[in-house]
């Protein structure tokens, strides 16, 4: 099992959500996050300069079975990509185990319903 954390532009969240749905990733968590990157810029609004070096992004967090890692990463990458600086990052982290609280099942089976496996 792997945990995939993707930091993406807020404007690309709906595209990523749709791409994950198309590959049958039905459940994930997401969070609004802020970060500081190399890009420093300020914007002027009504004559006042605002520092925009704190970049607002969405963190999408998914736990998947090993067989689904590659297609999940490709789906996120293709949906989130604009080709410009600031598209984000994808991190793949090993997961030792998972436990479904309701049934006590552990391992890969805790991530999906075996009776609905395609």
Descriptive labels:
118 residues; single chain; alpha+beta; 36% strand; 2 helices; 4-stranded antiparallel beta sheet; Alpha-Beta Plaits; two-stranded antiparallel sheet
Classify the helix fraction into a percent range: 10-25%
CATH architecture: 2-Layer Sandwich
Radius of gyration from CA coordinates: 17 Å
Can you summarize the main beta sheet?
A: 4 strands, antiparallel
Give the number of helices: 2
* Structural class by helix and strand composition: alpha+beta
Describe this structure in words.
With 118 residues, the chain is an alpha+beta fold. It has one domain: 2-Layer Sandwich (Alpha-Beta Plaits). It has 2 helices and 6 strands. The chain has helices at 13-22, 69-80; strands at 2-9, 29-36, 42-45, 48-51, 54-64, 88-94. A hairpin with a 2-residue loop joins β3 (42-45) and β4 (48-51). The two termini are 18 Å apart.
